[in-house]
Amino acid sequence: MLVTDQRASLHAGLSAMLRAPDAEFDASVARIFSESCRVHLSAPFYPLDGTEALIAGFLRPLRTAFEGIHRRDEIFIAGDNRRDTGGHWAASVAHYVGNFRAPFAGIRPSGRLAFLRAGEFYRIEGGRVTEARLILDLPDLMRQAGRMPFPQELGTEMLFPSPATHDGVLPQTGSGAESLDVVERMLSDLHAYDPQTFESAAQTGASGAWADDMLWYGPSGIGANYRWSGFVKDHRAPFLTAFPDRKGGNHYCRIGDGNYAAVSGWPSMTMTHLGDYLGVPATHRALTLRVMDFYRIAGGRIAENWVLLDYLDLFAQMGIDLVARSNAME
C-alpha cells in the first residue's frame, strides 16, 4: 500500500486542482503531475505528454465545458502493483460534476447538470504522477444530454453509486492483498465458459467468487444489474454472443487496498466481432477493448463491481462514430 499520507495527498490534490483559480491552475497541475508525465485517455483523445499538453488537451477543455466543475470520488485506493510493470499506483472511480455548458470531446452540451463518470489509474513516483490512464464514460454523458447513442439498453442506466459501505475513499480497514486474491481467483476462472449457459466455474454458489446479492455497475449501453442472473442476462450473454472468442486479463495494473481491488488493461481484451452488439451487426473485425474494474470485497466474495469500458474506441473499430451519431439527434 502507498504510505497513507501520500495516498491522501493525491486525493486532496486532484480535487483542489479542478477548483483552483485560473491564475493558479497551471501551478496546481504541476504540483501533482511530473513535467514529463504521460497521460493516456479514452477515445477520442490521444496520449498527452507533459503537463503543458495535459492542460491544453484535456484539463482546460474539461474546466471550460463544465461550469462549477468539481470531482466526487466514489472510490479512491492505492497500492503496489502486482503486475510485472510494477510501481505504486492509485485508482479511482470518480464523477466530474458541473453544468454542461460548452462542447466537450465533440459532444453538444445540454446546458444542465451532468455527472461525467471516470475510471482513473495513476502511477506515482517521487510524490508526483508520472503516468496516468483515464476512461471517461462519454456515451453516458450523451445519454444525460438526451442523445443516447445506442439503440437499445441492456441493464439499468444510472448514476454510479458509492459503495454500500460508504468507505471506498481512502479505506482504513481490510486487507488489500486478500481482496486482490479474491479478484484474481475469479478472473482466472472466468476465461472458460459454457456457450449454452454462459456459466464459468467457481463464480457462484457457496464457494464462488461472487456474493449471492452482487451488484454490477456497467458503463452506458450495458447499464447496471443485480445478482449473477441479472449480470448474465444484461451483460454476459449479449457480450459473449457478439464476441465469443474474447480473451481478457491483459492487465498493466492490479492493486488492492483495504476491502477493495482494482485492475486495468490498455487494452485488456482481444476479440472478434462475430454477432450483433448494441445494434451493430457483426463486422467480423478483430477488436481490442480498454477496461477498468473496481471491486468491493465482503466476507471473501465480490459484493460490488464498477466497470469502465472505452466504448468510443471499441465502436470506432467497428466503423461507428458514437459522437457523430449522438450529435445528429434532436
Describe the structure concisely for a colleague.
The protein has 330 residues and is α+β, with helices and mostly antiparallel strands. The chain has helices spanning 4-19, 22-32, 50-65, 138-144, 176-190, 227-242, 311-317, 322-327; strands at 33-41, 48-49, 66-80, 88-100, 113-125, 128-136, 210-217, 224-226, 253-257, 260-272, 286-298, 301-309. The strands form 2 sheets. It has a 6-stranded mixed beta sheet with strand order 2-1-6-5-4-3.
How many E-type strands?
A: 12
How many domains is the backbone divided into? 2
Q: Strand order, biggest sheet?
A: 2-1-6-5-4-3
Which percent range describes the beta-strand content?
25-35%
The number of helical runs is 8
Q: Can you give the helix content as a percent range?
A: 25-40%
- The appropriate CATH architecture of the largest domain is Roll
Mean pLDDT: 96
The poorly predicted ranges are none
Largest sheet entry: 6 strands, mixed
Would you list the SSEs in sequence order as H and E? HHEEHEEEEHHEEHEEEEHH
Overview of the structural elements:
With 330 residues, this protein is α+β, with helices and mostly antiparallel strands. It has 2 domains: 4-144, Nuclear Transport Factor 2, Chain: A, CATH 3.10.450; 176-327, Nuclear Transport Factor 2, Chain: A, CATH 3.10.450.50. It contains 8 helices and 12 strands. The chain has helices spanning 4-19, 22-32, 50-65, 138-144, 176-190, 227-242, 311-317, 322-327; strands spanning 33-41, 48-49, 66-80, 88-100, 113-125, 128-136, 210-217, 224-226, 253-257, 260-272, 286-298, 301-309. The strands form 2 sheets. Strands 2-1-6-5-4-3 form a 6-stranded mixed β-sheet. A 6-stranded mixed β-sheet has the order 8-7-12-11-10-9. The longest helix is centred in the N-terminal third of the chain and has 16 residues, at 4-19. The radius of gyration is 19 Å and the shape is globular.
